[in-house]
Fold:
Amino acid sequence: MERILIAGATGHTGKRVIEILNNTQNFKPIAMIRDKSQKQMFDDMEVETVFANLEEDLEHAFKKIDRVIFAAGSGSKTGPEKTTSIDQEGAKKMVDAAKKFKVKKFIMLSAMGTDDPSQNKELEHYLKAKKEADDYLVDSGIPYTIVRPGALTDDLGLAKVKIAPKLDERGEISRDDVAFLLVMCLADPLAKNMAFEALEGEESIKSALIELSQNN
Structure:
């Protein structure tokens, strides 16, 4: 079984990623957590944990790791300093460690709008931080996929999406469906070295990803 390190494991999307991976035959989730109070939840799920902080040294977390899903974020209630520290510099630190330990693929949860942050004044700082992290991953030489969803909802996932390198529209997508996209992208041939936007749609996640991968 391949060992998948999940940054942001305690977040809404990260938890869903862990639940999905925990029910697969090929992948073993490793939850990256910051403090001991978070460990019990994963112990109850029989999920392995590793203590690491995106604002500190985290290379120890990468030992025996095959692939990475970065689903961490500073959250909407923190200031710009935390956004820079977590979403930008924390992500870059993960990329550096992934490169050093030769991970097979790095899946980055990004956001719609990172291609042109100036178009959204309200979220400009956040989108700039995400863009810098995305660009850093692309330039690293690590096999990657960057997933850029629209507004995230807590609705029940329907496993139906609309995806493209650029969608030219705004919209929503459930965290469930984003988590499934992140997990599906772990497969080597799917969306390799690609960034794409994602909204709720009519096509199944699997067929949408296969089509996207074949057309680019």
